Amino acid sequence: MEYVISSCRVAQATTDEEILQARTARQYVMNCEFYCSMFLLPILNKALKLGCSKDTFVSHLRNAKGLNPDRIELLGVGFDRFLAEDYVSCIHILAVQVEAWIRDLLYSMGGQTTYVKDQIAHVHTVGTILSSELIKRAFGSRVWSYVNAILNDDLAFGLRDKVAHGLCETSEFNRNKAALLIHICLLLTNITLTRA
């Protein structure tokens, strides 16, 4: 079973365990796409018909714990791009800003978001941030699995790395993926911070 990004094979599952992991991740992706189409998008459409706007979204974010206030306006711009059906811009903004928000959460809980190597400070990867026990505990297993699949897991969506490294196919910048990132934003507003 091959894993391909932008027409280039980047990995190949060869062992039974790797093949099972790859199939499980692909099934999870299909489930997310299905639930997004059947439930999340209709709920977002209803909210928009009832007057949900960028201002409503931003106002909701202001109540979030552990979110750097400077990040709120950027997240609002991402939502505004969703409303304008500019999914390329929406996904480019939200994928990176959601990662930064998770870093903010980890830092707020006393976790490490950087490390020093050769006397130079480096930021941890999104995978390392998501692997933090503080993040796993704060998110709970279901939210953690969802966020990890959408942002980090290359066998699933892995949007953060695909977007940041220019590996997305044009077809991947769609309403469903943008809605999944908005859903993550809404989920993150409900996270309860725990200290290390």
Q: Which H/E pattern describes the elements?
A: EEHHHHEEHHHH
Strand content: 5-15%
Q: What structural class should be given to the helix and strand makeup?
A: mainly alpha
Span of the ends, CA to CA? 40 Å
Helix content: 55-70%
How many strand segments?
4
The chain-level mean pLDDT equals 91
Radius of gyration: 17 Å
Outline type: globular
Largest sheet geometry: 2 strands, antiparallel
Number of helices: 8
Strand order of the largest sheet: 1-2
Uncertain segments:
none
Structure description:
The protein is built from eight helices and four strands. Strands 1-2 form a two-stranded antiparallel ribbon. A two-stranded antiparallel ribbon has the order 3-4. With 196 residues, the chain is mainly alpha-helical. The protein has a domain at 53-188. The chain is globular, with a radius of gyration of 17 Å. Strand 1 (2-5) and strand 2 (8-12) form a beta hairpin. The chain has helices at 16-49, 54-61, 69-83, 87-108, 126-131, 133-151, 159-164, 175-188, and strands spanning 2-5, 8-12, 114-117, 120-123. The mean pLDDT is 91.
Concise structural overview:
Strands 1-2 form a two-stranded antiparallel sheet. It contains eight helices and four strands.
Give the secondary structure arrangement, pairings included:
Elements: E1 2-5, E2 8-12, H1 16-49, H2 54-61, H3 69-83, H4 87-108, E3 114-117, E4 120-123, H5 126-131, H6 133-151, H7 159-164, H8 175-188
Antiparallel strand pairs: 1-2, 3-4
